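A quick aside before the break. I want you to see a complete sequence-to-structure record at least once, exactly as it would be stored in a machine-readable document. Don't worry about memorizing anything.
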Amino acid sequence: MKKYIDYQKIVNKSLRKVIKHVLEHIQDNGIEGDHHLYITFLTQYIGVEMPGYLIDEYPNEITIILQHQFWNLEIEKNYFSISLSFNNKTENIKVPYEAITSFADPSVNFGLQFNSNNSSTNKTDSNHAENQIEVDNSNLDSKNNESDNVISFNDFHKKIEE
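That is the input. The structure line, written in tokens, reads:
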């Protein structure tokens, strides 16, 4: 087996820390200004906790929006938990950071997207470092949005045969 630096795994881990830091900021300060977050995650991922009827309705992915009505935001090392309203019923959910497939704050034109090579492994393998990562216009200056650039790290990643 050929040894190499797994840059993709390193970047993946770092970008997920960005999400954690943003959530910690919101936990401490609330959502300020026009910020609102779209967080999409795999509902079948190991460690995700949410009511069965939501998993039935969203068997693969669900997008939650953090803007005005959310409660009990708790940030842990490997996951966050939050209470949200679904059909006028408050529900508690727990989301491991590794389950997140996209994260966006449209108010500042910021987004991260994590694409999996094989989504079936996400259901059973909690250490799936083989994710492909795309960063969508990570410049936080919303005035500089002449084009929505997506940088695919796969363009710079040498394919490794196992």
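Two observations worth writing down. The beta strands are 37-42, 61-66, 70-75, 79-86, 89-96, 100-105, 110-115, 132-136, 150-152. The two ends are 7 Å apart (CA to CA). We'll return to this after the break.
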